[in-house]
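This is your field. Have a critical look at the following sequence-structure pair:

***
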Amino acid sequence: MKVLILLIALLPLSLRAEWDLKATQLARSYPTAFFINATGGYSLPVWKKDDKVLYGYVRPSVTAQTAFVVHMAQAQIDINPISILNFYAGKSYTERDYDKLPTFDCVAIVCDTKVKRDYYGARLALGGGPILFMADFKWNRSELDEHHPGRQYADELSSLISSPGSDTLFQKTF
């Protein structure tokens, strides 16, 4: 761990690092949702060839998101040993101040709560000519706050109801 911290601290001295900031919003009709999101990151090149594809970098980032009744903060680290392959891991904390979700029975399950998430995954992008293939594999472990032990809760990210207390979700996207 000390070596990783030292590497991240010294890389900007020898390679060009770049800040980035992205803001997004989403609005949908069913299930009804709206949020605004801001993500900031710092890309630290690790190695580079004179090719457009042959480079690697590390990118720590933070995200803040709000839907005015659901708030989320997230920290993530991306490691790209080569530009087309990405490994990532992160933690997020969600606080929901709303107990009437239209897609869930908030009497039977907990809607107004705090949820902690740990996640990790991998992404791959391949292309040739007009064909592009992208894949994302993500493991997401969510845990309800200590005020509702053993209760099921609504997960707004997957629109699923969790197992009591905590749950693990594996997502595959192609």
In short: The chain has one domain: 2-173. DSSP finds one helix and ten strands in the chain. The mean pLDDT is 84.
